[in-house]
Amino acid sequence: MLEHNKYVIKERVKIISAVQSYDILDPESGQPIGLAEEKIGVFTQLLRWVMSKQFLPTRLEVREKPDDSLVFSIRRGWYLFRSRVEVLDAQDQLVGYFKSKFFTISGGFHVYDKDDHHFAEVKGKLFGWNYRFLTPDGKVEMGKVSKKLGAAGILKEMFTSADTFGVEVNPDLADEPMAKMLILAATLAIDVVYKSESRGGVDAGDVLGE
Questions:
Q1: Residue 7: pLDDT over 50
Q2: Fold classified for 6-206
């Protein structure tokens, strides 16, 4: 899956479910290349029906098709004013993490590698689906997430759906699977973690930044 540079991520719509899951597709062929699915305990699922999801822990596993092998996972503990979201490889070892920012009104967060080096900054808008992954100095665009990426062929019409978005990684990162892993993980975190927090009871500026 990490050999690709472009992805379509489509949320699976469920009428009654406490967990989120996403198909990861090749935008050229429309074929599934991965699946991202929350893996949370029964107790946490029950709590989601009576309290805000933003305060509860979550873990999202990303698996490659067709063999369902684990590629990476995303983990966040109980929410305590500011999120730290961790990215773990298939061996459950830390690859990197995300930290949200305070006192801003538009969406974004910082991306760090496992050695605490500032890998990227995610900038976007709180309302909408347009995000850019920039190097810490802001000079190079490493990737972008949008609902208007030029998806080819069978998936072109899918971008009218509110549950579908595209990811495009800078070709310069074609041979850097860890960088792609962090970008894909950050994309999923936007929807699973940060968008949920922005809809919660705290000021969105406490969890998102530009």
A1: yes
A2: Tubby Protein; Chain A (3.20.90)
